[in-house]
Amino acid sequence: MSSDTIEAAVDLVRGSDDVVGFTGAGASTESGIPDFRSPGGLWDRYDPSDFTIQALRRDPVAYWEKRLEMRENQEFDWNAVEPNPSHEALAALEAAGVLSTLITQNVDGLHQAAGSENVLELHGSRRAAKCLHCERRLPLETLDRKLTEEPLPPRCDDCDGLLKRATVSFGEALPRDVLMAAKRAATECDCFLTVGSSLTVEPAASMPRIASRNGASLVVVNLEPTGIDDRADVVIHAKAGETLSELADGVLG
Ligand code: NAD
User: Fold this and answer.
1) What is the pLDDT of residues 156-190, one digit of tens each?
2) What is the value of pTM for the model shown?
3) Which of 15, 26, 79, 206 has the smallest count of CB within 10 Å of its CB?
4) How far is the CA of 84 from the centre of ligand 1 (A)?
């Protein structure tokens, strides 16, 4: 029988030696970045198959035209987003030595902006760009400049390969070293805290199951029910910012 109180979550975290955090898009919605799957989200308005790695390779000009159209219609400014209380609470728990690792599906860099250091970005980062051919990483500004000043698609100056953001697209493999490190952290921890994820995107969604299978207690903070709720020790269906602030205050206070 699971609990739904912050006090129960505080007790679990306090009684654990190795707490691992795991975040999804819901950790950043209070910073103004919409998640993808809530009603009215991105995938209600666009077809995910237009943004796969295969779509980029098949017709790079069409891919970039759709991407730029999406960016034009976006109702928020990526450059103006800032960390919210959930990012700050997770950074405070790490700084205090409570949280060992933060696994994130987010690509927005807000955990690092809040001060988190041991962050495993399973789906890459939108704060950099990469060449699909020579795998060189380059600053986002270089990609943005090419998108405005050169004909589509943007190409690598070194090898003429296709450029894209350094995020993991549908159909693209996750960075192996990051995935291995995340699985190791999930296996070795004794408390796993999942925040703001629908837990529908694999293999990221398996992380709480891996932790639970290996004996860790499970805390779920999400606005809506998730597929792991029935296995969790504490399930809190509430906003992440307020909930994590209270959790950090209770653990550290
Ligand atoms: P998702 O969109 O599938 O699910 C988000 C979940 O967060 C939902 O279940 C929703 O109920 C919950 N939620 C929304 N606001 C919340 C809040 N304030 N407090 C608590 N819960 C809240 O997101 P996902 O599971 O991360 O998977 C989406 C994929 O899209 C990921 O691969 C991720 O890389 C990408 N993505 C990233 C960002 C970002 O970097 N900020 C934003 C959107 C999507």
Assistant:
1) 999 999 999 999 998 899 999 999 999 999 999 99
2) 0.94
3) 79
4) 14
